[in-house]
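[Meeting: bench + compute handoff]

Bench side (C.D.) handed over the final construct sequence. Compute side (W.E.) agreed to return the predicted structure before the next meeting so the bench team could plan truncations. Sequence as handed over:
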Amino acid sequence: MNERATQNAKVEKIKNGWRLGIQKGDSLHYRDAQLDDYSQLPRHKFPHQTISLSLLAKTSSSSIAGTWGFGLWNDPFGLSLGFGGSPFPLPALNAVWFFLGRGENYLSFKNELPKTGQPQGPAPTYPANGFMAQTFRSPKFHPLLILAGLTLPFSRKAARKLLSKVIDEDGVSLWNMQEHPQGTRAPALQKVDVTQWHAYRLEWSEKRVVWYLDDILVFESSVSPNASRPLGVIIWIDNQYAAFTPEGKIAFGVLEGGNEWLEIEDIVISEK
């Protein structure tokens, strides 16, 4: 695994694994510590086309200012995990991961506002922040991505709706066990204490993805990243956020925070 860290962040070897840490800091500077297996590779040469990933993990806090997680993605922004600088070009996102992001984040493209004159409906169908199992599938190229990019300066709501037609997604909150669109739900777990060691596993195959937490199947989905588009393993902790809300609000940046860390042990990666 490649070890990467910004200033005021560190990746340290520990027994059986790594500690990824970010230092206390302001909301002006990006802090990121990560492990990956795709650094310096072009996207078409990322290492994995279906995979099983398992590890043990715990964090310093359940409310880290930023995001953390582990899984696979196509690094569409080319900025570490970054939504960092500019929202252009609009991404063709392919990812499958365990992801935790505070409420400043809104990582879903399909949730919609209630129609005018209708009462506020139930909670959004797809999780957008908190602790979640999540997957995205996008084509390598789609003309609606160009149209969304051209539309964005004039109507963010319209651009977001176009993206929802290109980027397929699925997921479930691991903290708020809501009904899933297909009528399934994660088991009635208590809110997961991420500051304690847990065993996480995800299995990405051509037609489905499954997530396990402490050997309990917590979610499965047929929204599987296209196996012809290789992905890379990413494990990270940072102080950033990104949001594209149903109201059309775009927000991204970095957050003030304290000394935080993510510890990882017993990583096992096997091709399926």
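W.E. noted at the follow-up: Residues 136 and 169 are 4 Å apart (CA to CA). C.D. will use this when planning the next construct.
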